[in-house]
Amino acid sequence: MTVMRMYWEQMLSAVQTIHEERIVHSDLNPANFLLVCGQLKLIDFGIAKRIPSGSTESYSHQKIGTVDYVSPEALKDTGKGQNIGRVMIRMGLASDVWSLGCILYQMLYGHTPLADYDFQGKLDAIMDESFIIDYPKWLEYNPDGTIKETHEDEEEKRKGADLSEPARERVTAQVKVDVDGIDTIRACLQYDPKQRPTVPQLLQVPLLHPGERLMDIPASR
């Protein structure tokens, strides 16, 4: 977790730098963070947007982002381009926060929240406000190094159960997922962008300050 926290903080710091300049990256994903001399650098600003002065959002005539990390609002037509026959979507700094939440999910679980869905299934899930993202509480590492997630119903079965020796041999390690990590992801992946924390707030949450409560963030999804 120490290394993960270090890289997560570096990602946040990089994004905070562009957000201070009112720039939305619009395509945050692991491939756009480059490790240079032990420090993560943010790259690929090809579809970045600057938010106009006096506004909190920017508009684009195309749906943008990488599907595994794209926010709901980046897929919605606002209708503002109807008079010119174009789709217009609304983007803000909170759109990058959603993408950061997907990245942190991948850092904790080894895959993105919707990795098991096909392309259309991912789009449908992202757009569905009632869709429930799964947050397993345990990770089990198999002998080959792959991760087996343990979901809540399996966790209940675990309580009071005595694993047989063959079962113990099949699992090399059982790790409880950091609750502060889950809380941070939940906050980032709130459907309403206005409910998501800002990057400065994310830099103050318990995930980066174990044992301290500098700031609590609400989590609803």
UniProtKB/TrEMBL annotation:
> Does the keyword Lyase belong to this entry?
no
Cited PROSITE patterns? PROTEIN_KINASE_DOM
Coiled-coil spans in chain: none
Q: Which residues form the Protein kinase domain?
A: 1-208
Q: Which Gene3D superfamilies match?
A: Transferase(Phosphotransferase) domain 1 (1.10.510.10)
Q: Which UniProt keywords apply?
A: ATP-binding, Kinase, Nucleotide-binding, Serine/threonine-protein kinase, Transferase
Cellular compartments per GO CC: kinetochore; nucleus
Q: Name one GO biological process term.
A: mitotic spindle assembly checkpoint signaling
Entry annotated with the keyword ATP-binding: yes
In its UniProt record, a GO molecular function of this protein is:
protein serine/threonine/tyrosine kinase activity
Q: Which Pfam families match?
A: Pkinase (PF00069)
- Enumerate the residue ranges of region (Disordered): 147-167
Q: What is the protein name stated in its UniProt record? A: Kinase-like domain-containing protein
Q: Which organism is it from?
A: Piptocephalis cylindrospora
